[in-house]
User: Fold these one by one.
Assistant:
Number 1:
Amino acid sequence: MTAIMSLNQDTSVTSPETNFSKGQSWGALRKAWKGYRIAKVQNDNSKMTEYATKIRKIQGELGVQVSIFPNLGIS
């Protein structure tokens, strides 16, 4: 029953400049956070900055609260 209900939900994108569904954006956000955590364990500041930038961009497109990264100077 939940599969049918999920088909009826609005899958439009909140930001008109993207061609991705909300589901695709949430998946990309999840992967970006995973990449950030891996880069943090590896102490790779350039990768952490790259992923932090992607995370903030996707969060903005989804209309959710945008994260800050004070250890990277990104606010």
Number 2:
Amino acid sequence: MKKLKRLLFFLLFVTTYTHAQWEVQLDLQNFTYLDRIFFLDENYGWANGGATIGSASPYFYTTDGGENWYLCDDWMDRMGTDIVFVNPDTGFIAASNGIIRKTVNGGQTWTDIQTPATQDVMRLFFVDENNGWATLNNFTDSSQIVHTIDGGNTWYLQQVFEINTSSILPIYFLNDSIGYGGGGYYDIENGDSYSSIVKTQNKGETWEIIYLSQNTFYSIDDIFFRDTLIGWAVGQKSSINTYLILHTEDGGETWQEQSIAGTLEPSRINCVYFVNDTTGWIGVGEVFLGISNYGAIYFTNDSGENWQLQQEFNMAVLDIQMLNQDTGWAVGCDFIYHTTNGDTIIITGIEEKIDENDLLQITPNPTNGVFTIIYNYHSPEADIYQLTITDITGKTILNSTRRQAPVQIDISSHPAGIYFLTIQFQKNNKFNFFTQKIVKL
């Protein structure tokens, strides 16, 4: 009952945020779920995730930017936790028991390569066709990763921590020398727990700790660095079940926590992706015992000084990859989402910094389906605007061009739920958006 009240409060009072038209590109409900996505370019992409069909872990691929997704015929009885390709022919899947699968024919066939490890392989990262790293699910051994310099044909172990019950999960390399990892370890002798971000400058041969949190265990779920100075790490403050965003501008010497705008704060951030120093996205939501009922994507255009809600989903968003400011993909358990206007932002600072709620009014809201829109921003450029209404999945149910005037809308024929009304207009030769949520009873 408490959860229901909390959700209702959110729906009624948090009404204004960006809406970037993340549309469902593949729906896999009741089949399997996905938690990793990787695109080589605008055409070639792959997605995989947790095994829910017996012990099989199917993955999907596209050769036309997601217009068509295909199920791989070569299912192996091993869970695939990550997938990367270095060219359209050569790719890798992280598997169990220290095995990394490799294809050299675009996924038609796969070869199992046994690394020196016996733990499950968690994450993969390649900087070119020869140099790659993989993290291991370490809970009883000292923390290690595996590294290849010959395109994944042979792998060797590298040491990260020497303390037992250690783990490094997300990994990110800028080039074949400089890389970062996030995780934590437990000092059995002293009973102390640590969360950490580590850095290597010699291909992973040695690592230094650049962030350390002692006895306040944080889950570091993803890391992203733009260069040797600017980076982010995201996850969860596990002890209090709230999100964690860390940002550095000096290569990790110092870190600052960033916060999310809004009333309802997510409990976990799963992924982070930036296309330049200022423009980035994070995916939020939790999966517990294979079940998730909320997710969202947040967006920033000021290096994370302000993170604002971009779109909500009914399942956690677990991975995001953007090719540029407009085009990208995300996976959320049963769904693959796609956007072609991913840098959509709320309008702020228009004229005398008018409050957005004054610019666009919807009454009544909540509504039985019939409501009036009052658009109060008057400008020769903006008097003609595009009005769009979409449902929670991003499907458009109304799209029309309007002029300044109160407009009555009727969506009573559509089911009860959450809808988004977006006003788009052109100012200074740039398209601007602002969006409000509609609750249909």
Number 3:
Amino acid sequence: MPYHRPEDTDFALWELDVLDRSCPGCGRMMYICDHRYRRLHTLQGPVELLCKLNHCPDPHCPGHTRTESPELEATIAPPHWAIGWDVFCWIGHRRCARHRSIPLIRSELIDAHRIKLSEDAIAGYIQRYQAMLAARQQDPEALRRHYEAVEEIILSIDGLQPEKGHETLDVVRELTGKRVWFAEALLSATADEVGRLIARAKAWAEHLDKTVVLWISDKQDAFVTAIAAEFPDVPHRYCDNHFLRDVAKPVLEADSHAKVQMRKKVRGLRGVERAVLKHQRRSTPDGDASDPAASLTLLADPATSCASEIDTACDVVLDYCAAVRGILNDDQGGPLHPPGLRMAEALQEVRDSIRRDRDEQKGGSPRSNSDGWPAASTGAWTMCEPSTRRSATTSKTSKRSPQPSNPDGTPS
């Protein structure tokens, strides 16, 4: 399917000619018989190639019926491609090295280089890139050069399942040279299928004339059987990652249960945020902040400074709520750093910070700093205004009450 470009695209013209104009058959000078135009995208911008085609002028020469194309054309782009090699390598690097998705690659091409490709076209280029990469990785001569200074090799095999329900991709990797040898998708991890991969790895080792001193895997039954059949004298060890993951399963289960319990206790964040935001909306003055007189009035008013302090306190409360929400949603860490343990430590740090702020606000009194006092209640509370009637009643009662006297009748 032809590639459609905008009509106002400005192409840079590149003229290409044959490097050697001598006819390979008779040695006469070849002449330009035709021109071929190609348009493609490069990282430097859109390019139009003008390829000058040559052939021998002698009708009796075998080279007369054969057309010679410029040799540099293949170094810029393969035939029938809408992009150059540089764009092709850029797409493959983003996919294989940085693991970018196809929609993200497409948007980056448009934003950075103004190259608009469909997702199907990008997927096709990625498939070709993977095929070329696999062919390069499995080149016998390249492998032999890579392992010239290596005497012993260590092989590993593992199955990768991209999504649940899909076939498993079994990868054979050499750990001494840190090189992936080959990979194959297996519909079922049976002993016969896995044995075929192990036999292929043995053939590769024999072709390189290298000794396999160790096999590493997650010790599935099929792996154990196939490796023991093809490499009877080679030790088979457990993968450190799988071993640690299996050992840490009980710890991770207990840690997950602890996270659930902590999330149950730390509740009401959204209610606290709603109350603070509602209080901020009610305390916001209705005056125009651009009026200088209004600004002077607000600065001179003591209630304004009190309101600013309240707003600062509200911001602090919102920051604490955001920090606690981030702590509760953090599930990273793995078996070496359990997320539940990290969550407990982070929540304790938040609690200590709140206690330090409260003690500093109270002036660092012995009562506030004392560890013997019980923890403050976290229940709901309301601020009540002092009752003038209750104060007056108490004052009158204190005036009418008789003075206490001693047993002998004298006033005390």
